[in-house]
């Protein structure tokens, strides 16, 4: 056999192997997607959501209204953080916060502690007493005022299947959320620097009790230890809600929140959900920051074209093959009419996945554009003033 023929056969063999390998990977990922809905979790409800775009990557009974136990405290925390002017302000513990049932950081009557420490007690040790101390403080002594703020924030976020009647999550009639809503709430909260730092802390020592006992807090979200990419979360349990977990992770530029409600194996289910999502979706850049978009003529027939750009970049989690379903449309006039300011919006850029609009951004001028007639008139006046 000639050397050239041998080389050709070797190349063809390698290409065949590579093709079969890619086919195998494709089917493996497809199998992961098919498996996810039915066998990934024993939870009553589950959602995996991309924090940045809000895209739901995996779900099961995502809109079912369910009790959520101490994952309630995610909303308690973000409302307190946003309402407070200073997280280091001292809080005098309301007597009604002392001795509440369930998990506790053992607050005592007459004690003072910073709001920041109470938030660590809330999110790490899941202190029900901490939740009430925070609520009475932010509500200026009125618990209902704080709960109203929680429900108002839920509406603002778009959590339409959520209602709070307390700040701690103990079983109560009319206290519920959905896996989708809880993912929305968590994604919103996780964009706040203070919340993100507190929710991602594994351990913290706060002010000792008045009688000298140390308060050493450990985060009950075990995924912070057992899952390499976990960066925050909250757990909860009541007889009615069962075991509930919210976890946030970051891997390969993709930041995900996984919610499982009434899940007997909440940690294992959460890890499986994360793994399926990361194996199936990849963060894909669709628009660069300050990307050039187009150049348009000006209505006064000047020679130069005006350059246009978008300010924000945009990335989106896509499955294998979905990139082909992305379309980018520009809404622009045929010509621009001066005068135009620098960075003035003149149109829209829309990005679609199939028929779904997933991103919309203004298109801006790079530079200002003067009205030539007005500019010439001003020049004529100046010439006449100085030279006539």
Topology, element by element:
Blueprint: H1 3-39, E1 45-50, E2 56-60, H2 73-83, E3 90-92, E4 112-114, H3 115-123, H4 128-138, H5 143-157, H6 179-189, H7 193-199, E5 203-206, E6 215-218, H8 223-226, E7 230-238, E8 242-251, E9 254-261, H9 266-280, E10 281-287, E11 291-296, E12 306-310, E13 314-319, E14 326-331, E15 345-353, E16 356-365, H10 372-387
Antiparallel strand pairs: 1-2, 1-9, 3-4, 5-6, 7-8, 8-9, 10-13, 11-12, 12-16, 14-15, 15-16
Helix pairs in contact: 1-9, 2-4, 3-4, 4-5
Rounded average pLDDT:
90
Q: How many separate domains?
A: 2
Q: Helix fraction?
A: 25-40%
Low-pLDDT runs of 5+ residues are: 23-34, 374-384
As for the CATH topology of the largest domain, it is Beta-lactamase
- Number-wise, the strands total 16
CATH architecture of the largest domain: 3-Layer(aba) Sandwich
> For the report, how would you describe the main beta sheet?
5 strands, antiparallel
